[in-house]
Design goal:
Elements: H1 2-79, H2 87-111, H3 125-139, H4 145-180, H5 185-209
Helix pairs in contact: 1-2, 1-3, 1-4, 1-5, 4-5
Amino acid sequence: MENERFKSNTAVLVAFVTVLGAIAACLATSAASSAAIADFNGLNAAISAQKAEIINEIYAYEHFRAFTDYSRYLELGNLLYDPNASEEIDAENGVMQREVWGVASGIKSTFFESRYVTVDGIYDLQRELDEALAEDSQKEDLNPNPHFSESDRMHKRSSFLTADMIVLAISFWFLQLAQVTEKRIKYFWVVIGILLGLAGILGMLIGRFLI
């Protein structure tokens, strides 16, 4: 009778450990899936960031070239003024000067933002790039680091829970061994199986909430 009760109780423990193993497997699979999603999101953010950087640099350097053209025309207009020129030449220079300055004004109003020109007359290219990147960041995710950090964490969780499954599998093996053993050593096997099962439960809690 005692032996039958022992086998019945051990069978319950075996079933319980089997369920725990299934739960650990489910958690490990879920963590691996989350890691894959985080990897994908991280790669997508990295690609978007690289794309935004390239496009912003193209536009910024186009604006910078326009600024250099503006500066050249502006300086050319200044050079057209000659205080020692005759009235006729001064009038001709004045016409060309207004035309050149008109071209400079058109470039300034059309091809670059005046707010990027410093008080020293230098084009702040880095400021434009930083503002463009900040604007792009508001529209889409350009920071891959949080995603890759989450991926690493999920990979660690998946690996830890996979190792925990092995612990539960060993627990299952000892409980099965205790169930088929007739000698008194079966109590030793069942104790080991229970301890490993408890370790498996602790491992699941650690993997789920602390990793």
